Amino acid sequence: MARPKIALIGAGQIGGTLAHLAAIKELGDIILFDIAEGTPQGKALDIAQSGPSEGFDAVMKGANSYEDIAGADVCIVTAGVPRKPGMSRDDLLGINLKVMKSVGEGIAKHAPNAFVICITNPLDAMVWALREFSGLPHNKVVGMAGVLDSARFRHFLSVEFNVSMRDVTAFVLGGHGDTMVPLVRYSTVGGIPLPDLVAMGWTTQEKLDGIVQRTRDGGAEIVGLLKTGSAFYAPATSAIEMAEAYLKDQKRLLPCAAYVDGALGLDGMYVGVPTIIGKDGIERIVDIKMDDAEQAMFDKSVDAVKGLVAACKAIDPSLA
Ligand code: A3D
What we know:
Blueprint: E1 5-9, H1 13-24, E2 29-33, H2 39-48, H3 51-54, E3 60-63, E4 74-77, H4 93-110, E5 115-118, H5 123-134, E6 141-143, H6 146-161, E7 168-169, E8 172-173, E9 181-182, E10 188-189, E11 192-193, H7 194-199, H8 205-216, H9 218-226, H10 233-247, E12 252-261, E13 267-278, E14 281-285, H11 292-315
Parallel strand pairs: 1-2, 1-4, 2-3, 4-5, 5-6
Antiparallel strand pairs: 7-10, 8-9, 10-11, 12-13, 13-14
Helix pairs in contact: 1-2, 1-10, 4-5, 5-11, 6-8
The structure holds 3-acetylpyridine adenine dinucleotide.
The site of 3-acetylpyridine adenine dinucleotide has 35 residues, from helix 1 and helix 4.
């Protein structure tokens, strides 16, 4: 049986890391695509030469033409620009919207059956625009943000509790921005919800509030340290987790920016929600119940995403 084909649209910091991870995990053959000439070819060759030591046989190719992504089973999109210190994700909207148009058209023409994972920021608006430009089914176009935001939350919690990250589950929903919603009540250590752990004296409410805020600011913290770009190791790992769930029909329950029409009181928009990912892409939206405070935070986040989508429509009338 032929190996799956994975097309990485954008061969920058995240794209290169995605290629290396996908090869090491033997998820399939890899095409690294970018408009910058030489970059995808150079990274592909470099990563291919890690194969003998790592022991993988994936075919690794760099490309500047969309024809090379033909028939891809998975496309992971990082094309565009990342933010620099002082910038918000929303500042990237104008430039990255144009990039989504060319990427969406390229995928529609050459890889219309792919499962498409968008990472480009501002995430919720860009995944919506990418779906509009590509015309692919909604269940096959999804944004990566919740897996990363939840991983950041899990990491901070595991350090606070001095327990393995594997035993910490966490949910961060809503838009991938300052209004994201870390759901404390649905986050646990070994199944024990965080509010119970506060009552048990494992941490204080004040410390927990601090971790929630640090999670919301998780991307900016790394931008501030790197100064030249944004996080790329954990974002790449998070997207690979989603791609693997699709390719191996794992039915993973992962928070993703998915198209929601009906669940959680939403009518037809992309935002971070719990989903099930399997061979049909987004197979289910998990319609969790929120309490009043959680709902208020989620509503605020939904409004922020709606504002970004409206801004996209104002820039490109073909989206209106
Ligand atoms: P970077 O290293 O700059 O790579 C972006 C690549 O896109 C560059 O190699 C560009 O040449 C290429 N590119 C630009 N325009 C096009 C085009 N029209 N077609 C094809 N390729 C193009 O950035 P990065 O890899 O660090 O980040 C990529 C994106 O991911 C940015 O928008 C970040 O803001 C975003 N990001 C999102 C998250 C989420 O959690 C959602 C996390 C981190 C970064």
